[in-house]
Fold this protein.
Amino acid sequence: MGKKVREVLKRVKKKHVTKQAKGPRTKFLAREPYELGDGITQSLLSSFLTCRRRTEWELEGWRPVGTKQAIWFGSLFHSLLENLCIQIRAGGIGPQDADDFFEEFIEPWIKKHTKRASFDSPKTAHFLAAQAKAVFAPYCEYWEEDFNRTWLETEGVFDTVVDMGLHDYRLRGRRDGIEELKKNRLRLVEHKTKGQIPEKLSDVLLFDFQNLFYLLTLNVDLTTMFGKKYKPVVDVLYNIIRRPGIKLKNGENLKHYTERIREAVTKDSASLAHYFKRNELIYPLKDQALFRDELKFQLTEFRMWRAGTMHTFRGPSSMCMPGWTCQFIDACAYQTMDGYQQNGILFEELMD
Ligand code: SF4
């Protein structure tokens, strides 16, 4: 590891540059049922709006056996970017340090998740690390400007009570980043790792549920978090990193695999643009107000469903593979929970 990166890491530990909110306590859903007072995340509500069957199983703690590699690649890349931003805030790190930084980061990450048995085999953790390493340094070079941005928060957990007229609701989540722009403006940053990027994505993003949900809570919390310095937030940077689809060959070692992916990623400017995409979006306040009105009805439906006054049924099958495949397809198709275990934790994505 480079001496410079080591020095920055020491400084980061001393300065605690990012004050992070605490994630929720561990609640095993099979033992302690979900209650409305636990709060609602955007993923829980979107799941409810598309398929109540899926949501019920999720809230009962059912999870498929085995590692979902796409989800874990996303989780690894999010952690990488979070730590990178913390160090950018501490100063003294540049895109040229990306590989050193990765080496320093990855071993503790693998240890932590192998210990928690997050993966079906330790090999999976090393395989995902090989993919992430291939993409990370090119990403840092491609978005070199990120090293000069002012990051105010990274991976901040929020827990915001919002007044929705008849009822207050506890809305929860984890924002990937908040960046300071010029003229007292802030920008919400969302990272996504994707295998496929749909053609009409930029249009759909203009009314994206997650972005609007996060803007709503950020604007409710804005003064508490930052005083009166900033205007209501309307800007979002939607940052997509494409997960490599290149397969490991029979007998190939992971070092060679990493090199092969990196060659493909950095082949030319078209290839880099294929792997790294950003959408800069503006959500005018009138659009945010419309979202808030709609959300009120969606939350009311969710409340009634939890109270048992609305039925649970499967959603239309077009919702079973909307860009990703629902993890409960086997359960729905064959009416059995074989291949699932009831070990889910509530809001695991918010935990540290
Ligand atoms: S497979 Fe389709 S119907 Fe079944 S839970 Fe998933 S989204 Fe709902």
Observations:
- The beta strands are 40-41, 62-64, 150-163, 168-181, 185-194, 235-242, 276-282, 340-342.
- The pocket of iron/sulfur cluster is lined by residues 51, 53-54, 314-315, 319-320, 326, 328-329, 332 (CB under 6 Å).
